[in-house]
Each structure stands twice: as C-alpha cells, then as structure tokens.
Write a structure and sequence with these properties.
The protein is built from eleven helices and 13 strands. The protein is of the alpha/beta class. It folds into two domains: 228 residues, Nucleotidyltransferase, domain 5, CATH 3.30.420; 78 residues, LCP protein (Aminopeptidase). The chain has a seven-stranded mixed β-sheet. Helix 1 runs parallel beside helix 8. The longest helix is centred in the last third of the chain and has 21 residues. The protein is globular, with a radius of gyration of 19 Å. 42% of the residues are buried.
Amino acid sequence: MRKRRIFISILVVLAVIITIAVSGYLTINSKLSKLKTTKISQSPSSLGINTEKFNTNDINNVEENYINILLLGVDKLNETNDTGRADSNIILTLDKVHKKIKLTSLMRDMLMNNVGSKAQDKLTHAYAYGGPELSLKVVNDNLQMNMKDFVKVDFVSFYKIVDAIGGVDLNVADSEIASINKYIKEVAVVEKKTPFYLTKGGMQKLNGMQALAYCRIRSVGNGDFERTQRQRAVLIEIFNKISSMNLSQISNMLDTVLPYVETSLSKKAILSYTSYALINNIKTVEQLRLPEDKTGYSTNRIIHGVFYLDWNREGNIADLHQFIFEGDLK
C-alpha cells in the first residue's frame, strides 16, 4: 500500500476533525450549525450496499467498528446549474479496532458499472449525474462497500481554507509557474478578485488561489500522479499550520471553513466520531490508492475516443477490504 492520491476534500475534513477535537462542546455544537446538511436515502438498496455482505448482526461488528465515509471534491467554481464532477473521491475510514484513520483514494477515471442510466462510465461522472447519493451508490456497488454518508467541498472551499490559515509554504518549480498562473487567472475571473501571479520559483508562501492552482497542475511532470504529490505537500503544510494555531485562531478558521462544507452527517455523528478519535488519541493515518500499481491491476482503455482506467475487480477489491477491515469482513 503506497502513499498516493490525497484530494482537496480531505484537506477540509481532517481539518474539521482536528479542530473540533480541541474546542469546547457548546462552541463546536454552535459552529456545526454552519455546515450545509443534506439528507440522503439510508436504504441499502438506494446506496448500493450488499446487505448479505454487511449484516448488522455479524460477530465482528463491522458496521460499528469500521466507520466509512465518502469524501468528495467537486470541480465547481461558481453557483451555476452545472452540478460539477467529483474529481476527488476518497474513502475515509475510522478504524476503532486498530485505532487508525485510513484514506483510500479512487482515481477519477476508473471505469465503473451502473453509473446512473449508463451501463459503464467514469467514476467522476457519477456526481454529475446524481449528486452525492449516486456517487455513494456507484462506489458501494462497484467496490462492495457500506458507506451511508458523505462530505463534500469544492474549489472555492479549498482556497478559502488556505487563506483562513494564512497561506502555505511550498517549493515551486520554475517549470510550474506558467500553469499555476493560468489557473490563478481562471479562479480570479470567476471570483471577481484581483489575481496575484507568481513571478519566480523556489520556496515561497502561497495564498489560497495560488495553492489551489498548484494542486490543479496536470500538464507539468508526470500528469495526475505528480499532481497528487503536490496535493500531499499542501495537505502536510495545512496540518502544520493548524497544529500551531491557538484556540482563537482555530475558532476563526472554523467560522470561515464550515459554511463551505456539505455533508449528510448529523451533528451527533460528527461529535461522536471526533470525540472517539480524541479520547483514543488516534494519530496513525494510513493510505491506499485504487487501482493499485500492481501488475495487471489496471489497464488504460480508449472507448469511442474517450480515456478510461479499467481495473482488475477481484484483486483491487480484495486488497481494499483487507486494508480497511483487516480480515474482519467475511
């Protein structure tokens, strides 16, 4: 299991987990009201959950001991009728048995079955066709998972988060400048803000738009794979900044961040999961990316002129279940 794709959505979710843990209950309960809460179906069939595989009466208490939530990062910059696509799909697992947090990144171009009205399509399109509920159903159905909740953010959320913590320090390559400035301009036009372009490479502090542009680079280096390295670098910097904040700064950050987060989780669930992680001092974070890099685990395919990432179902699903449930899912 290799450290791979960490998408924009996890930046928000883990920030929320960390900051909730260090503030008072009444303050947090009040701040959680700023979240946009969206109710979705809890019917297993509507969410693509195999009830024979995930039986609430199982002896290992899988449903209780392994909390799985789908994190969605949507490529949408403004309030239009366009739903946007979920370029970021991550399974967040709170493993109560082994006291860990696990992150499983799913590549956006994975070829999935039964995506809305289509027999097959890219994972990223599930959100465009049916929002978070269809994204949950597609991931559950194709990967034999049991998720019932989601957390979603978009590009605007991301850059505002970075600004809220005072920017991030990153080492920018000279070859990345042109692409970064192109994306800065795109966001600035939509947001009707003055763009601040980069003029040189090297270690420097990036503001929210600049950091977002840095994360979006695909044309420099090794495409999507190198882009994930940039996203991890930003993630680490965000954690470093949050860990050095005092309670007043954290409170102000939550006021900025939470209005841009949408979730199906209840306040009770958020507080329960967060307090569990705090009380048990959970600091271990493990990561996996699907499809894996193993020989035969993925294949590039062109269908009607469109690129898809096909994948070995049996091998990838077996490894995913072992990573998340560590043998407890029978």
